Structures are given as C-alpha cells and as structure tokens.
Amino acid sequence: MRVSSITPQYVNNIPDHLEDGVLYVCERFGTVAHKCCCGCGEEVITPLTPADWSMRKEKGAVSLSPSIGNWSFACKSHYFITRNQVIWAGALTAGQIAAVRAEDKKDKAAYIAAINRQKAKQVSVFGRLWQAFVGWWRS
Ligand SMILES: [Zn+2]
Predict the structure, then answer these.
(1) Can you give the pLDDT at residue 121?
(2) If you measure from the C-alpha of residue 122 to the centroid of ligand 1, how many angstroms do you get, rounded to a whole number?
(3) How far is the CA of 28 from the centre of ligand 1 (A)?
(4) Residue 44 C-alpha to ligand 1 middle, in angstroms?
(5) Is pLDDT above 90 for 30?
(6) pLDDT above 70: residue 91
(7) Could you please report the per-residue DSSP string of 7-38?
(8) Positive or negative, the Cα torsion across 50, 56, 62, 63?
(9) Which value, to the nearest 10 degrees, does the dihedral of the CA atoms of residues 40, 45, 4, 41 take?
(10) What phi-psi label fits residue 59: left (phi over 0), alpha (psi between -120 and 50 degrees) or beta?
(11) Which residues pair with 78 in a beta bridge?
C-alpha cells in the first residue's frame, strides 16, 4: 500500500526489519532508511553526504532532498519526502532517469574534487610551515 506520510524515528542503528511509513534516521552513521513508499517492500537507504541526500529538520518534521528515485527497483517509484509528507512525483522515462544519473555522477565527481582540493590546500599549508621551520633551523 502506498503511504502518504512518513514518521521519523531516530535510531542508533538501522534495524533489520523496517516498518512501512517509518523513516529511520541514524545520525551516528549519517544514514536514513525507509521502506519504499509504494509498498513494494524494497528498502531504500539514503546516505546523508553532500553528494547524496541532505535532511532538514523543522519542529519534528523531516525533509529529504533531492527526491527519492527508486530507479533500480521494479516499481521505479519517484517521490519527495517533505515535512514528513510523501509527495509523489510522476514516473520518469528511461531518458530522464539516465539524465538524473548523469547529474548524480557529476555531483559526486564535484564533491570528490572539492575534497581533493581541500586536501591539497592542507598539504601546501603544511609544506610552507615545514619550509619556514627548516629555513629557521638553518639560519
Ligand atoms: Zn516501490
């Protein structure tokens, strides 16, 4: 059965058995899990990272963005979780799914590039400090 609302439940670990209509939020591991809102029984895991999903909490209600697109399941469900409400989006065509996937890949690549730039920056700061130290040591 399709669910039209979902209740957040904060957990230390994602349980083995998920209930319909419950959004399991595991902040410790930055993971959110729920059963596909169409009722097909598939489990949807949404990692919370800048390249995956983000979660917003307002007065006990949660929103996930971007939308949940279960392209790999038979149901191909597509919906938004906004303030505990499940807002159904139209099914996407194969072409649209390919476009979303390409966009996801770009996001992920940009995220990894940003982390690498950050790391490179840290290395160069450390390198400069080291050179300053060596310069001082030799003088
Ligand atoms: Zn489904």
Answers:
(1) 72
(2) 44
(3) 27
(4) 9
(5) yes
(6) no
(7) EEEE-SS--SSPPTTEEEEETTTTEEEEE-TT
(8) negative
(9) 20
(10) left
(11) 69
